[in-house]
Amino acid sequence: MSAAIVDPGPVPAPGTGPRDTAVRRRAVALRPGAWLVWAVVGFFLINLFGVIATVVLDSFGRTWFAGWLPKGYTGSNYSDAWHEFSLGQVMTVTFELSFLVVGISLVLGVPAAYALARRDFPGKKAVMLLFVLPILVPPIAYGIPLATVLYKFHLAGSLTGVVLANLVPSVPFVVYTMTPFIEQVDPRLEAAARMCGAPTRAVLARIIAPLLLPGMLAAGILVLVRTFGMFELTFLTAGPTSQTLVVSLFSAVFSAGIRSAQSVDAMAVVYTGSMLVLLVVALRFVNPTQLVARTRD
Amino acid sequence: MSTLTGTPAPAAAPAPDRTALRHRLAERGVDRTLLLLLPGLVAVIALFLYPFIYGLGLSFQPQGANAGHGVFASYRAFFSDRFARGSIGTTFDLALPAALLNVGFAVPISYRMRAQFRGKRLLLTILVVPITLGTVLTAEGILEYFGPVGWFNSTLEWLHLTDGPVTLVDNYWGVLLSLIISGFPFAFLLTHSYLSGIHPSLEKAAATLGAGWWQRFRHVTFPLLLPGLLTTFCLTFVLAFTVFPSAMMVGDPDGRTHVISIEAYEQALQKFNYSQGCAIAMVMTALMFAVIGVAMALRSRLYTGSTGGKG
């Protein structure tokens, strides 16, 4: 597996000493190790492409039992899927849920992030730990006790229950995304505003909020993407009328046989399409490496 | 925890004659700003901590057939059933190779990707796609692409590499594939961001001292990267350890890929034995923390100071 590192033993190491980047880059491209690495990346990307492309092609195909391509193309799978899985209702629920979770988790998370970024108080470590646990502990592990509690309070199966369950990872996520943003805002700006006689409300509305808006936007979009794709928590707490797109996709695949594979695929494409739109929007505001790296410490 | 929720209270209701206390608290950072913490804290306590403790308590109150056999009956029922107990081994069999493969591939590839080249941002963007696809769509794609008549097997047969189709779905390999497809980009992006935090001048310094390619990697970059790699390993391991939808869809949920999360789900929400479901969830959490604990103990023995980079 680490063949790429071990492999280029006999090759002499170029680029010793300060050279300009052009020379170094060409030297890198010549190494067999580099070719091997790019081959692995290429193989991965080809298979990834295949995985996505088969679903997309199949969703437009009439029948596709064997061979390279489906026999004939049609758009009727989409209308079938729309009626069969009542996608209109499912989409409404999905977007209601996502935006509710984004709104509530921003309202709860941003003030907490502000307090954590600005104050050093006894017990701060414990609070930080409490906020990191829902991110660390996998959804399925706390989802089962949470579902049990929600059933006890007769909240499971309703949209309220699903929103509550999805808040668990979202609020800490907002806290952890926002804390570095707030730390970057110089506290002397607030002090200066207060010196000029601004009341707390004005400091919040005219100094902090505008400066934090990009951060809040980024955090909100990341929460939106995560909630949209969150399977476990929604699956454990949703009822028939509060299923999101990903959960009803799962049920459709798992109970396949009574439905045509094509309409299931059509639903999968609708899901991917919405996800991609969200992703493109998200990437306009967030650097891809931050998408995963920001959550840690 | 009690100190946390308790501390803002004196600052919240300041009496005029207790300004001294208020000032002393403010000096230690306790003032009205901390009230901002309350809504978020209440939400996490009510929705995460309380259910977790409730579940822990419930796991000691056996239900159904286990009732009346002592407080540990739910745990005993899980560990005495060979099939249920075996789900622990099954989960490790899947999660360990998946996490090791993902991290193992991520290192050379991100090492190669440090240089600036055209289309780097595009490549990074493409690699984010599988993270957002989610496990359900990935599983659906794997079923069709790696299936007996899918493109993958068709290509193999066309190249005369195999006689018959290779079975890659509805078994162990399907789940492993889905774990790699959704886990590798995650591991790669993390490793990439760690690696770009190590300043290139360190390697250049080693190069001026005559260190070869392998020596520079082995003795300069790798030791600085190792703490980050252990964190990456933990995160990918947790993702793989709690595999649920793909184990159901592309795996063999009643046999070879009967992972612990499926066992917990079936007990809690299909057999409605909440007590045993919670017990299994607790076992799962404990196992996960044990692995993370080992990795973090290793990590604490390593150098984790400045890497001269942006971090």
In the sheet with the most strands of chain A, the strands line up as 1-2
Radius of gyration of chain B: 25 Å
Mean pLDDT across residues of chain A: 79
Quaternary class: heterodimer
Question: Briefly, what CATH class of the largest domain in chain B?
Answer: Mainly Alpha
- Pair with the most extensive interface? A-B, 106 and 112 residues
Strand content of chain A: under 5%
According to DSSP, the number of beta strands of chain A is 2
User: In the CATH scheme, what's the topology name of the largest domain in chain A?
Assistant: MetI-like fold
Segments of chain B where pLDDT lies below 50 for 5+ residues?
A: 1-12
Total domain modules of chain B: 2
At the fourth level of CATH, the homologous superfamily of the largest domain in chain B is MetI-like
Features of this protein?
heterodimer; A: 297 residues; mainly alpha; MetI-like fold; 2 domains; two-stranded antiparallel sheet; 14 helices; disordered N terminus; B: 311 residues; 71% helix; flat; MetI-like (chain A); transport (chain A)
Protein described:
The complex is a heterodimer of chains A (297) and B (311). Chain A is mainly alpha-helical and 297 residues long. Chain A has 2 domains: 3-74, no CATH class; 82-293, MetI-like (MetI-like fold, Orthogonal Bundle). Chain A has helices at residues 3-6, 21-30, 32-60, 76-84, 87-118, 124-136, 139-152, 159-184, 187-195, 200-229, 232-237, 245-254, 261-285, 288-293; strands at residues 61-63, 71-73. In chain A, strands 1-2 form a two-stranded antiparallel sheet. The two termini of chain A are 29 Å apart. Chain B has 311 residues and is an all-alpha fold. Chain B folds into 2 domains: 2-59, no CATH class; 73-300, MetI-like (MetI-like fold), CATH 1.10.3720.10. Chain B is built from 14 helices and no strands. In chain B, helix 6 crosses helix 9. The longest helix of chain B is centred in the first third of the chain and has 31 residues, at 82-112. The interface between A and B is large, with 106 and 112 residues.
